[in-house]
Amino acid sequence: MRLFTALLVYVLIIPLGFAQTQNGQAAIASAHPLATQAGFEILQQGGNAFDAAIAVSAALAVVEPAGSGLGGGGFWLLHRESDQQQIMLDSRETAPSQAHRDMYLDNNGEVVRDLSLNGPLAAAIPGTPAALDYLTEHYGTLPLSITLAPAIRYAREGFVVTPRFQRYMGFRKQVLNAEAKAIFLDGEEIPALGSMIIQQELAKTLEAIALRGRDAFYQGEIAEQMVKSVQAAGGIWTEQDLANYQLKIRQPVKAQLAGYTITTAALPSAGGQLITLMLNQLNTLDYWQADKLQKRHLLIESMRRAYRERTLHLGDSDFIKVPDYLLDPGYAAQIAEDIDPESASKSDELTDEFSNKGQDTTHFSIVDQDGNRVSATLSINYPFGSGFVAGNTGVLLNDEMDDFSALSGSPNAYDLVSESANAIEPGKRPLSSMTPSFVENDQRLLVIGTPGGSRIITMVMQGILHFIEGHDAEEIVAAPRLHHQYLPDRVQMETPGLSEAEQQDLTDRGHQLDVLNRQFGNMQVIVADKKTGKLSAASDPRGEGMAKTEQIIDKD
Question: Is the pTM of this model over 0.70?
Fold first, then answer.
């Protein structure tokens, strides 16, 4: 093994705060204009970033049902400026108590993918309502009756059908149950552009949560309704599963690169592990001295090796022992030793250990006038989750059980392969790609995240690199993206994306390109100048979101 001195190390670093000259400016970037508007509505009423996060997430649950909702979960990266506290709130879904490793296999031992994607058997126990309650009790300043008010209003008054809604509904309408069809379709057809989606039942559920907090969702009438509906349609939820749901408070993964501190998601997100591993590899490969084309090649090779480690080792750290060396710069150097600076590797030749051979989510970023910040990535997995609305609650359930390994070596809906570390167990959280992140030094701050299934981690990684290279918020969200996840052994690329000459360079190096007839990701970022307090926000031009900065009136 080569010996070297690495600049990138896994360490705990005291976060660097805003200067005291904060100028009263706040910023929000989310996947829908109404959600961004809801967040500012709460900030202008005296709420902080955490109150605004509740409002934004609840609003997205109403107006962007393809991406997230009360029937899903996610990861919330929180920074409280007053004491520089940083935590990750883990509201990831958990497997029901009756779940078992072989629950999606047929009599021949083959995976029946329909069972883990569509209908209530695909649904894990949701965590989002618990997160809203926890944020209110421990970080917010306003009651749920105020922070949920915009979402309740949107549910009662409706939101406008957009091309994005139509596109995702076209992909999933065939799996909707009767309750979901009654809400999201016009008879059996996709609603026309400009028509309104009204969700009276969801409004009632949100009102109950506003009044009683998490107990309204996890116990009592709403819980009974959901369980009755799930079981009647072949699912395995119990009322006890809901009552037993617990949030987890995680310490984020932290690393340093080029004078910047990277704070990102801990397991059961694979993001922190893989981003650290990729960055450590790039540091050993003289990435910063390489030209543009060489950088792209080295980045792909680091992705390939990081995702191999995901396949072999990662899962819910409450259930399995994850190797500590994955965050060690020395190990990154070891696995990067065989990277050829000119030629592509072959995934099936990297190791003898492995012998077996998104689509939607949402993200928002918030920085308030006091420097508090939230980076939150929430999901119900596939567009419109399982397609199953539970009874008369208006709650659209997730299909996150597909994120487990249904069979060792068998790919999930995103072609991600996992081994036994990510096998189904009762109460276990499935491995996730959601990677909310902060990047900062004493001068600049980036708040970043994106949906995108298996591509989330590599998109966030590219956004981090763009930021460190000096790009602004608009440039970060608009930059073309590529992705490699070890298996299948192909480089996924957007259309439009890289130029023909850039693609040819990768082909000449031996990379197999998979040029998709679409773009991917819906990144939401905020960039801050810490010395002046000036904020800039950007919403991905691939989506229909809105990023905005606004002066917040002091209510004191």
Answer: yes
For residue 543, CA distances in Å to 73, 109, 236, 354, 527 come to: 21, 40, 35, 37, 19
| Average pLDDT of the chain to the nearest whole number | 92
Among this protein's residues, is 361 annotated catalytic? yes
Return the ∠ at Cα 30 (arms to 173 and 366), rounded to 5°: 145
What's the CA gap between 22 and 552, in Å, rounded? 11
Find, among 172, 73, 158, the residue nearest to 403 by Cα: 73
Q: 383 with 172: CB under 8 angstroms?
A: yes
Q: Phi and psi dihedrals of 378, rounded to 5? A: -125, 155
* Beta pairing partners, 505: none
User: Residue 359 above 70 pLDDT?
Assistant: no
Report yes or no on 218 lying in a domain: yes
HSE value, Cβ hemisphere, 13 Å, CA-based, for 554: 5
**Residue range 78-119, pLDDT digits in tens:** 999 999 999 999 999 999 999 999 999 999 999 999 999 999
Does position 198 have pLDDT exceeding 60, yes or no?
A: yes
Is residue 167 situated within a structural domain?
A: yes
Rounded Cα gap, residues 276 and 332, in angstroms:
9
Residue 415, C-beta contacts closer than 8 angstroms, at least 6 positions apart: 454, 485, 487, 488
Catalytic residue among 36, 361, 435, 450: 361
pLDDT > 90? residue 311: no
Antiparallel, parallel or unpaired: β 260-264 and 253-257:
antiparallel
Instruction: Return the pLDDT at 21.
Output: 40
Structural domain count, the chain: 1
Residue 389's domain comprises 31-245+379-422
Given a cut of 60, whether residue 238 has pLDDT beyond it is yes
Whether 358 maps to a domain, the answer reads no
Q: Round to whole Å and give the CA distance between 47 and 335.
A: 47
DSSP states along 220-266? SHHHHHHHHHHHHTT----HHHHHT---EEEPPEEEEETTEEEEEPP
| Cβ–Cβ under 8 Å, residues 343 and 404 | no
Whole-number Å distance between alpha carbons of 44 and 553: 6
Pairing of strands 491-493, 513-515: parallel
Largest CA distance in the chain: 67
Reported as a single tens digit per residue, the pLDDT across 416-462 is: 656 678 999 999 999 999 999 999 999 999 999 999 999 999 999 99
Confidence of residue 20 (pLDDT cuts 50, 70, 90): very low
Predicted local distance difference test score (pLDDT) of residue 286: 84
